[in-house]
Prior knowledge:
By secondary structure, this protein is α+β, with helices and mostly antiparallel strands.
Amino acid sequence: MAGQLCPVIKLNIMKKIVFTLLYIITLCSCENDAEIVGGTKKDTYFRITEFIIPENSIDLNNDNVINSNMLLEFSNYFNNTYDLQIKANNNSSLLSFYLPKQNIFFDYLCCPNGYVEFSKNGFTINMNRRQTSLENQIIDNENKIILFSKLNDSSYKLILEKKYFDFNSNAFSAETFEIKYDIIN
C-alpha cells in the first residue's frame, strides 16, 4: 500500500513543480509585453508647447487679431496641469488628449459682442504598443487625427483637423493644427 502512494505523491509533486515553472515563465513573458508608447511602464504626462496653423491665421477669441499661433488665441486656457496622458497597459497605451474647447456666450450686458472662453475637453484612444504612430483616426464631428507620432523620448507631435468658430470670417471652419507636446518632469 505504501508503494502505491509513492507514485501518487510523486505525481502531485511533479504537478506542483510544473505549474510553478509555468507561472514563473508567464510572469517573465508579461514583463516584455509591458513596453509601451513612450518606452516607459508608468503613466506619462505632457503639456502643449506649440499649437499652430501652418497655412492660415484665424481669430478664435474675438479680439479682432488673427493669429497662426493658437497659444496666443487661447488666452484663458493654458493653466492646466497636463494636456496629454499616456497610460501604460500591458499590450497597449491609453492616450488621453485634452484640447481647448471654444465656448461662446452671448446676451451678456457687460459683453454685447459676446464672450469667449476655452475649457478643457478631451478624448481617449487606444494605441497598440507596437505602433509608432497613428494616422487618419476620426474621433468625432469636430476632431480628426491626421497623424500622431513620437518626435523623441520627451516629445510628441499631433496633426489634427479641428473645427473652431473663426470671428474673422464669422463662420465655423475646420483647420489643420500642428500641436507639439513636451513631457512634464
